[in-house]
Design goal:
By secondary structure, this protein is of the alpha+beta class. The protein is 31% helix and 31% strand. The longest helix is centred in the middle third of the chain and has 17 residues.
């Protein structure tokens, strides 16, 4: 790809099939245990060389610019490590909704890292890339690996999981977004030691998947945002084999064994009250 066109990458969303929140850590983060999977709902991130500095733009005015943008932070960290390039222009085309628990900003940052490697010709060791990714955000290391994984620690400690169950998902994003910080506060977890070690799960059939789907944040929002539970019920009534909240919300996903079943459910669910519906598959 030539210099003028830059390097473009698809940045996938993720869903949390499981998400357990444990005690608050001394660094202010929380210990979690979550099985995360990338799905085929994509932003597009284009990274191009510039004369100097870091410029990040997006086609969605709600996406922050400057150093508060995850792509800006990724570029800044990479340039500090590599000493190159001297400047970069990053353009984001958004499709993944914000404040949904789908990891859009984190996935964009991981794509920015890939673009910086392509521009500079420098590839950091895996440990260095994961460390820089964790400095940008808790979900960025997952997108740096971009495979089904068990996330532990504050999301920075990743172990690939065996996933043999192809699925399609119907993702429902309500009109409202939810704050991750507020979600943790509502859970009210006290300071605590890391959870004990457990075996890395494997998902070999639908029984494994159905038994696993759960998310502690559903309890955090039960009283203030009952629509989350309503959407879960609608997805199950429309034929989903399992349904749950992704991340800290607000998006709710249903899992289906075929594209036809997922699209049929999409036609059955209400689009009232500003809901957005997306059909995707595991990748």
């Amino acid at each position: 790809m030539n210099k003028t066109a830059g390097f473009s990458y698809l940045a996938p969303a993720k869903i949390n099939v499981t998400l357990k929140v444990f005690g608050r850590r001394s660094d202010g983060f929380y210990n979690i245990r979550s099985v995360m999977l990338p799905v085929s709902l994509y932003d597009e991130v284009t990274v191009d060389e510039a004369g100097s500095g870091i410029c990040v733009t997006a086609d969605d005015p709600s996406v922050p610019g400057g150093r508060s943008n995850s792509c800006h932070r990724a570029a800044e960290l990479f340039m500090g490590w590599a000493g190159a390039p001297k400047g970069v222009d990053i353009r984001i085309r958004k499709a993944i909704p914000s404040e949904a628990g789908l990891g859009g900003g984190s996935s964009d940052a991981a794509a920015a890292f890939r673009g910086m490697m392509a521009l500079s010709g420098r590839v950091p060791p895996r440990e260095t890339l994961l460390r820089m990714s964790a400095e940008v955000g808790a979900d960025v290391p997952f997108f740096a690996l971009n495979v089904p994984a068990l996330a532990e620690g504050f999301g920075d400690r990743l172990t690939p999981v065996e996933w043999r169950v192809p699925f399609f998902t119907l993702i429902v994003k309500p009109a409202f977004g939810l704050s991750t910080r507020e979600g943790y506060e509502r859970l009210g977890r006290a300071a605590g030691d890391p959870p004990s070690e457990t075996e890395v799960p494997a998902f070999l059939d639908w029984e494994d998947v159905i038994a696993a789907v759960s998310n502690d944040f559903e309890a955090a929002w039960k009283d203030t945002h009952p629509e989350i539970g309503t959407i879960k019920g609608e997805l199950l009534s429309a034929g989903a084999k399992a349904a749950g909240l992704s991340g800290s919300g607000s998006a709710v996903f249903g899992l289906f064994d075929s594209a036809e079943a997922a699209h049929r459910a999409r036609g059955m669910l209400s689009r009232e009250d500003g809901r957005k519906l997306f059909v995707a598959r595991n990748i």
